[in-house]
Design a protein that fits this description.
The chain has 227 residues and is α/β, with parallel strands linked by helices. The chain is 41% helix and 19% strand.
Length: 227
């Protein structure tokens, strides 16, 4: 079974950036694994951090179930990342080698949000490490995903190389987003991202709704679900 691995800095980032595409691939027989680098405990000025972290992890699990993903891994790095550690890099290397994805999703390189930028750098650094016989403490055999795609969240991409028609899965994407009630109840960003998907679909001539991506690595031909 082909496998995809999606990384997000916070528990809702994957659903925002690539939830429709993830669901589309799952419907075509793909296995999906999510990784939340932080638990999003800084996502409220009024809720206790430990309580919010537990709530947001549960929301992420429910959202993954809605999409049909297999599981969610939580790395529990502190929300508000300014850098990453060698230990975190080894953890990500281990995950890449364990899951052995053909497609990997991560924040786009141009994402200006600090946590997203750090997670992009963490995952790209770990990908280089996972591909070769390095890092003696890392587990598993080397692995390199054939396709690596950068997604947009709060800072829309100014240029993209791939648009994926999610007309048939946009409602499932919204259902997954709405699992993140701790965030949506104060800021109705599900509607904002529905509007962005509509804009992307129309402007890319790619169906009624689309998600767009920065192509960070690709084989000679993309998997059928993305082409």
């Amino acid at each position: 079974m082909p496998t995809l691995l999606a990384f997000g800095a916070h528990p809702d980032d994957i659903e925002i950036g690539c939830g429709g595409t993830v669901r589309k691939l799952i419907e075509q027989g793909w296995r999906a694994v999510h990784v939340c680098v932080t638990s999003g405990e800084a996502g409220s000025s009024t809720i206790d951090k430990s309580a919010l972290a537990a709530t947001r992890e549960q929301e992420a699990r429910r959202a993954a179930e809605v999409l049909g993903s297999e599981r969610v891994e939580f790395l529990r790095a502190p929300d508000g990342l300014t850098q990453y550690s060698r230990e975190q890099k080894i953890t990500v290397i281990d995950l890449i080698r364990e899951v052995r994805p053909e497609i990997l999703f991560v924040h786009a390189s141009s994402d200006a949000f600090p946590d997203h930028r750090v997670v992009h750098e963490l995952v790209m650094g770990a990908l280089a490490g996972a591909a070769g016989p390095w890092y003696q403490e890392a587990r598993g055999e080397p692995h390199q995903p054939a396709t690596i795609l950068g997604y947009e969240v709060w800072h829309p991409l100014t240029t993209h190389q791939l648009a994926v028609d999610i007309s048939a899965t946009v409602e499932r994407k919204l259902d997954a987003l709405r699992c993140h009630r701790s965030q949506i109840e104060t800021t109705h960003y599900d509607q904002a991202f529905l509007g962005l998907a509509r804009y992307r679909g129309v402007m890319a001539f790619c169906g009624s709704h689309a998600e767009v991506f920065e192509v960070l690595r690709t084989p000679l031909s993309l998997p059928a679900g993305l082409a």
